[in-house]
Amino acid sequence: xxxxxxxxxxxxxxxxxxxxxxxxxxxAIRAAVADGRLKGNETxxxxxxxxxxxxxxxxxxxxxxxLG
Length: 68
Description:
Blueprint: H1 3-34, E1 43-52, E2 57-66
Antiparallel strand pairs: 1-2
C-alpha cells in the first residue's frame, strides 16, 4: 500500500465531503427557515454516518448546529 497515495486520496475525499455537506446543510436550513419549520435562532441536532462496506467501517458522528 502506498501511504502517500492513500493520504492524498483521503484528503481529496474528505474535502469533497466537507464542501458538499456544508452546501446541503445550508440549503436545507435556509429552506426550513423560509417555510417556517425553523425560526432561525435555535440549535438543531445533526448526525453524519460514514460507511465503507468493503472494510466493515461504520462511523457515526452526532453534533449540533447553532443557527443564532
